[in-house]
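Hi all, posting the design record for the shared folder.

TITLE: backbone redesign
STEP: 1 of 1
STRUCTURE INPUT:
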């Protein structure tokens, strides 16, 4: 486990000097961190199944963005929601062309980062794993159980640069709370917290799997996209939270019909309308600046010595970590 030594190293070398925190990073350099460091908040929204655009907002323009990790799922749509600029990206592309396993997650998160997004809000359709959550309810999960198959690129590191970030709490608590408050003010039924199982798909669960997730994982919801999106948002130092929209009971529910695509699509439409309202209210609730720990989550992530990082790798990761390496 690398997380233990990293945390230990960070704490052991921490020293408070005249209102600032000084850290010795893993390469031995001293870094100074202001305790009151704040960042202007910019909101990005990734829309999932059924949410391919934001309705009722001013569209400023659409940006075609290339990233070192290829093109994102679609153009990045710049909108105005009240006084706030909000960037929107349909996760599966317009017209829903991409399977969960095919979504270019790294390019999507990198594109948001290049637009200056600090707070990333994921809107996702999910299967329901608990009796008391009803189709049409909203959930703001606080944990993820990864059941993807390792076929999705899930880190910005690699190719000559080793790095590790903590993922103990994959969702930002602050952003989750704003999201839940927004959902309540839209009169949505919202369930705060709970575990999201991320499966590979594209098929839904077998009955044996569904019972396993309920009994062994105590899952609240199941979906196909939070991994690697949450991992990459953390590596990109963004606050990340999810508005999970319950569409159907997964096949564990004995008295409900098994999941049918038709039933899911019908409720997706109603959920999309609610999600659109919740996101716009959330945009109004967010503060102007934030000092959330997510925004510096990779400050001590890089293990590789800066002098050992190739010029090519530095160029590829400049947007994300250049400030720490230069
Ligand atoms: Zn945060």
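Okay, here is what came back for every position:
SEQUENCE:
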């Amino acid at each position: 486990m690398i997380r233990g030594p990293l945390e230990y190293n960070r704490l052991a070398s921490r020293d408070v000097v005249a209102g600032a925190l000084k850290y010795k990073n893993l390469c031995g350099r001293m870094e100074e961190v202001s305790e009151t460091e704040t960042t202007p908040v910019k909101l990005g929204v990734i829309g999932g199944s059924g949410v391919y655009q934001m309705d009722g907002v001013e569209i400023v323009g659409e940006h075609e963005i290339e990233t070192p990790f290829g093109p994102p799922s679609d153009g990045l749509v710049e909108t105005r929601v009240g006084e706030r600029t909000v960037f929107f990206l349909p996760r599966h592309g317009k017209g829903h062309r991409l399977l969960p396993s095919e979504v270019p997650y790294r390019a999507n998160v990198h594109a948001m980062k290049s637009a200056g997004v600090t707070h990333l809000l994921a809107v996702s359709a999910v299967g329901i794993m608990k009796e008391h959550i009803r189709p049409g309810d909203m959930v703001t999960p606080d944990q993820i159980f990864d059941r993807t198959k390792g076929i999705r690129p899930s880190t910005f590191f690699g190719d000559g640069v080793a790095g590790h970030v903590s993922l103990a709490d994959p969702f930002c608590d602050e952003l989750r709370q704003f999201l839940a408050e927004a959902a309540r003010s839209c009169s949505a039924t919202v369930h705060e917290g709970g575990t999201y199982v991320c499966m590979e798909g594209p098929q839904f669960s077998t009955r044996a799997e569904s019972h396993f997730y309920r009994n062994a994982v105590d899952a609240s919801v199941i979906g196909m996209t939070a991994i690697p999106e949450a991992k990459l948002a953390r590596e990109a130092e963004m606050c990340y939270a999810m508005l999970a929209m319950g569409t159907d009971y997964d096949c564990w529910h004995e008295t409900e019909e098994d999941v049918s695509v038709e039933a899911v699509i019908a409720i997706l439409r109603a959920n999309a309308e609610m999600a659109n309202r919740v996101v716009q209210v959330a945009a109004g609730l967010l503060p102007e600046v934030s000092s959330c720990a997510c925004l510096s989550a990779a400050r001590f992530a890089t293990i590789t010595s800066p002098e050992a990082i190739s010029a090519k790798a530095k160029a590829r990761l400049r947007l994300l970590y250049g400030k720490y390496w230069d």
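COMMENT: The chain has one domain: 37-325.
Let me know if anyone wants the other runs.
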